Amino acid sequence: MLGNAIPRGRAAAAAVVLAIASGLLAAAPASAGVSGPAFYVDGVLYRTVATPTDLSGTGAPDGAWDTIYEFGGAQLNVATAAPGDPGYTGGRWQVHALSFPSGYAAALAAGDLDGNGVLDSATELQTAFDAGAAVDAGVVKLFVCPVIPLAGS
């Protein structure tokens, strides 16, 4: 599965993405409440309940987290697991920022396997990684929040 096996981008590009993503994500857990559509898992939309948690510095192993890939506003995020999936960690999230060396449109062209106009699964995102069109810039946030599938998604 995705996570630490994803290729890393250049240090300078990653630093820029991390700085931007950290600013975007820092306020998310502080504003508690039920969200609208928040991210995809295997093509299904989920919403969440934001909680004021920050689990940075806990020293928990990578296996204690599921991954959310943060698209920097280009589209809704993609998570690698949801309730009912084998190994789901119960809403403990490790957020990875993404960068797109040739732009988001190139990543979409490389990875949108079902042609629906978004990268909405770990498989599609992995395809974009394999093509070099998306780069995992590393972990920017660790937190806890439950996830709820959207009806009709």
What would a concise description of this structure say?
The protein has three helices and eight strands, in the order H-E-E-E-E-E-E-H-H-E-E. Strands 1, 2, 3, 4, 5, 6, 7 and 8 form an eight-stranded mixed beta sheet that branches. The N terminus is likely disordered.
**Helix/strand/pairing category:** alpha+beta
| Largest sheet properties | 8 strands, mixed
Overall outline: globular
> First CA to last CA: what distance?
23 Å
Radius of gyration: 14 Å
Helix count, per DSSP? 3
Mean pLDDT: 81
Oligomer: single chain
The count of DSSP E runs of length 2 or more, i.e. the number of strands, is 8
Low-confidence stretches: 3-30
Order of helices and strands: HEEEEEEHHEE
Domains, number: 1
Strand fraction: 25-35%
Helix fraction, binned, reads 10-25%
Written overview of the protein:
The protein has 153 residues and is of the alpha+beta class. The protein contains 3 helices and 8 strands; from the N terminus they run H-E-E-E-E-E-E-H-H-E-E. Strands 1, 2, 3, 4, 5, 6, 7 and 8 form an 8-stranded mixed beta sheet that branches.
